[in-house]
Amino acid sequence: MFDRRQILWTMAAAMVASSAAGCASGPSTSRSVRVQQGDFNDIAFADWTDDEPEYLLYPGDEIEVATPTATELTRTLRVGPDGRIALPLIGQAMAADRTLSELEYELSSAYASQLVRPVVEVTLKNAGPIKVWVDGEVRTPGVYDMNGDIDAYQAIIQAGGFLPSARPQQVALIRRGPGSVRMMRVVDLRQRRGEVIALRRGDVLYVPRSTLGELANFFTQVKAALPVGFNYTINGQYQQF
After folding, report:
1. What's the DSSP call for residue 105?
2. What is the similarity comment for this entry (predicted)?
């Protein structure tokens, strides 16, 4: 779950550090600030890494569940809105937030009472759309489906672009890293001057205002900006944040 107070303190400290660094050293070729675990002992963010975590299944993904020892049970299925799939003999099984190997193990265990050799092979056939959350000083904040490769600036454009009050050079990017840990960095998304940041499923972009003023005002500005967690269920619908 996101702790909004922790996010606020982290974003504020990172932005203050970024501004101070800019004043001390002038323009820099590296415009991102990476929040590290050791920088904020009371903040629940892990050190940033660009390492790609093992793929986790999500609603909308199309998978093949093959049973080589009982081929009549092989199915091509789409993970449902609740994160589940339905299989012969064993019924409903949770697939969302599992790696392929984890799902293979769980399904093999479920088939153990039904098959003599319960071997299950799971293959990702087609990945569903990438969902990202864009909030703050953009014209139409919300959750967006991103098809294909898309970067952070393109996501801002899809959300209607920056408002005049936006601070595009200090946008917060929150991401789930390896082991489902939360990571955050502050990135520069100014047109033609900013960074090209490829987005991943579940990324959160928050655009602060250009006139931050006192930190207390900044806290008020963003206190309700972010979703409550990386994944949860509302009325049976699996959510990806």
Report:
1. H
2. Belongs to the BexD/CtrA/VexA family.
Coil, strand or helix at 56: coil
The four Cα atoms 175, 219, 35, 140 give a dihedral, to 10 degrees, of: 30
The CATH homologous superfamily to which domain 62-126 belongs is wza like domain (3.30.1950.10)
Supply 220's token pair: 């008020």
Instruction: Give the span between the Cα atoms of 32 and 19, in whole angstroms.
Output: 11
DSSP 151: B
**Phi, then psi, of 96 in degrees rounded to 5:** -65, 145
Query: Are 49 and 37 spatial neighbours (Cβ–Cβ below 8 Å)?
Result: no
Q: Rounded to an integer, what distance in angstroms lies between the CA atom of residue 47 and that of residue 182?
A: 9
Tokens matching residue 18: 């970024």
The tokens for 211 are 């006139």
Q: What would the pLDDT profile of 153-192 be if each residue is shown by its tens digit?
A: 999 999 999 999 898 988 888 888 877 777 888 889 998 7
Domain with CATH 3.30.1950.10 in the chain: 62-126
Which CATH architecture group holds 4-52+129-232? Roll (3.10)
Distance CA 160, CA 158 (A): 5
